Amino acid sequence: MVGLYLSDLDRIARVIRNTFQVVSEDNKIEGADVSSFGYMSVHFVITMKQEYTGPRYDRIAGMPFEIQVRTIAMDAWANVSHHLDYKNDKDVPAELRKDFYALSGLFYVADRHFEMFYSQSKQSREHMIDVQDFLTRPGYRNKSRKTGQDTNNIERWFSNLCDSSLASRTGIEPVSPP
Question: Is the separation of the CB atoms in 25 and 43 below 8 Å?
């Protein structure tokens, strides 16, 4: 199974643990030596839970099978290194090892940065929803003098934002708007 981000791997692993009987779990991501790069994945050897019965499951009941969980970058690395028939570090020609490790490190960094971008993007979206909610509160709406329509009072919002910032730095609470 392939996830987009590192954080997807934990969610996928939880689903696997809740859905199947886990015989063994081998985390080649967290358990890897910090000085090494290369193949990374979480391997689950599993069987169907006993609660799955009937014609659909009878033939595979008790039969172990493996699910490998990794990110797109990990999957790309695994596929390319498999295609090149590099099963371990010793299979890589000595004159290419430095480049091999450097490239592996780039895939690792890409995964970490994709996760960072995803996390920051998610936080930014959540913050924008908070700002929208804040701007639409009853105390922060005004009638436009020109149109008579209900509009957001950006000036009041900005003033309160500045006052909130001041309060967080000084401990002095701003006066709430009417």
Answer: yes
Q: Are strands 65-71 and 2-3 parallel, antiparallel or unpaired?
A: parallel
Tell me, what amino acid is at 5?
Y
Q: What residue spans define the domains of the chain?
A: 2-89
Dihedral angle at the C-alpha atoms of 166, 170, 171, 174, nearest 10 degrees?
A: -30
Q: pLDDT for 28-83, tens place per residue?
A: 888 666 555 667 889 999 999 999 989 999 899 999 999 999 999 999 988 887 77
Which residue matches tokens 């020609």? 93
153, 140 Cβ separation under 8 angstroms: yes
Distance, in Å, from the CA atom of 60 to the CA atom of 29, rounded to the nearest integer, reads 29
* pLDDT of res. 115: 93
Its pTM stands at: 0.64
Please give the Cα distance from 46 to 80 (Å, whole number): 26
CA distance 111 to 107: 6
* Cβ atoms of residues 77 and 39 within 8 Å: yes
Alpha carbon distance 126, 174 (integer Å): 25
Q: Give the largest CA-CA distance in the chain.
A: 77
- In angstroms and rounded to an integer, the radius of gyration of the C-alpha atoms of the chain is 27
Q: Which of 43, 34, 45 minimizes the C-alpha distance to 9?
A: 43
Determine the 3-state secondary structure of 42 from DSSP.
strand
